[in-house]
Write a structure and sequence with these properties.
Shape: globular
Order of helices and strands: HHHEEEHHEHEEEEEHHEEEHEEHHEHHE
Low-confidence stretches: 422-432
Helix content: 25-40%
Radius of gyration: 23 Å
Number of helices: 13
Strand content: 15-25%
């Protein structure tokens, strides 16, 4: 059976779901109506589910027996705090957010719609899943854009001793991947990250008497010089590490020395050890330079160091085989992405893979980068994503080989959360 042909039969439903979600976006941790929409759909399909507080929704298809071979399929459901443009690169979009300042500009509306479509197709084939001694878990994750609540879902699975043998997720790509194609790579596919927002406090004064003030701008300039060189000075040349600032704010007028400066930015990398080095060196320089300049600092927000998403080679191979069964167009050499993903937690706990689904189509103006106000998708990609999830589920459940290239994670989801995303605050982030 060609699942792509079958997915095209429900294309209108996929589009309708995606447009409803796109027009009614909800921010991270606020996705109550989205959860209601998902559970109503699961109810209509006769799929048993549980709502996990803070985490999202878990749906179950197939055997209830915990000895069943189980694959977890993940979709994220939250939107971004960005004002959406009504236009893409060619003209007006077919669907635009109705909520001012909030929009699905990363494709989570598409991810949710595709997984709901896969849920329909898998439920219709539940008897086939059970013949494989199989079970499919549908994971709809809240708050991915804020670091993710996937660990809350994984913690529910862990605490209830639900066996999971593998996992799979998809992410639409707005730049460089044509609609009608998919890309599944081995190894790291999205980056780890360390993000920070720091406030430096000095002593304000007048520009005519800088010697009796203590300018936090001077301190920041020294910090910037040091932390921007971390990728060059401390990371081996064969390891990827990028650095960028997204915020620097201090002062209001030209002749007044401010007493505070705030700066924020991030590092991206594909190796967990690189993230640890970045974190250690950043804190070392921040503390020592502030002391040298007689300033205080407070880390207002800190994210990471987040682990990268790493595709298991065996699972990625299964996924490439699944994609080829749907037809031509797979892009196996597509470049990795330096965005970060909470699916890294699932891929750390269970062998799995993330596939990129192409949505770029110059003829209709799609192809803006994710998180851009102009971001839009070619909705013809929706059946491809749905079909690939269904095909992968069956291919994984019927796979009779061994996955020897995966090192089991010995951490609990709560412990793993610290490696996926943690925000620190309190006295430990303040220093003279």
């Amino acid at each position: 059976m060609n699942y792509l042909d079958e997915a095209k039969k429900i294309k209108d439903e996929l589009i309708a779901d995606r447009r409803y979600l796109h027009e009614n976006p909800e921010l991270s941790h606020e996705e109550d109506e989205t959860v209601k929409f998902i559970t109503e759909r699961l109810n209509s399909l006769g799929i048993r589910y549980v709502i996990v507080p803070k985490g999202g929704v878990l749906g179950f298809i197939g055997l209830r027996d915990n000895t069943a071979r189980t694959v977890l399929l993940r979709a994220d459901i939250d939107a971004l705090k960005i004002e959406e443009s009504e236009n893409n690169f060619m003209g007006r979009k077919v669907s635009v957010s109705k909520v001012p300042g909030v929009a699905h500009l990363c494709g989570h509306d598409a991810h949710t719609a595709m997984l709901l479509g896969a849920a329909r197709m898998l439920k219709e084939r539940e008897a086939e899943i059970e013949k494989l001694n199989g079970r499919v878990i549908l994971a709809f994750e809240r708050a991915e854009e804020k670091g993710g609540c996937l660990c809350d879902l994984l913690e529910f699975i862990y605490d209830n001793k639900i066996k999971v043998d593998g996992c799979f997720a998809e992410h639409v790509r707005g730049t460089g991947l044509k609609a009608g194609t998919a890309a599944i790579l081995d190894g790291p596919v999205t980056a780890g990250a360390y993000g920070f927002e720091v406030e430096i406090t000095g002593k304000g004064g007048h520009g005519s008497t800088p010697y009796i003030a203590n300018n936090p701008i001077d301190c920041f300039m020294a910090i910037y010089q040091a932390v921007s060189e971390i990728p060059v000075r401390f990371i081996p040349a064969d390891k990827t590490c990028s650095f960028s600032l997204g915020l620097v704010s201090a002062g209001k007028v030209w002749n007044i020395i401010p007493d505070r400066l705030t700066f924020a930015g991030s590092y991206r990398y594909y190796d967990t050890e690189v993230g640890k080095t970045v974190y250690d060196k950043f804190h070392e320089f921040l503390n020592n330079i502030c002391k040298t300049y007689g300033c205080k600092y407070e880390i207002k927000q800190q994210i990471g160091p987040i682990i990268p998403t790493v595709n298991n080679p065996t699972c990625a191979g299964i996924a490439r085989g699944s994609a080829r069964k749907l037809g031509d167009g797979i892009e196996v050499n597509f470049r990795r992405w330096t965005a970060s993903e909470s699916f890294s937690a699932a891929a750390r706990m269970y062998p799995g893979a993330m596939a990129f689904i192409g949505i770029e189509n110059e003829d209709i103006g799609t192809g803006a980068d994710n998180h851009s106000p102009f971001f839009d998708i070619d909705e013809n990609a929706l059946p491809i994503g749905t079909a690939l999830e269904v095909q992968y589920a069956f291919d994984f459940l019927s796979f009779d080989g061994s996955i020897d290239d995966f090192e089991p994670c010995n951490e609990t989801p709560q412990e793993l959360y610290k490696e996926v995303n943690y925000i620190t605050d309190g006295e430990e982030n303040k220093a003279e």
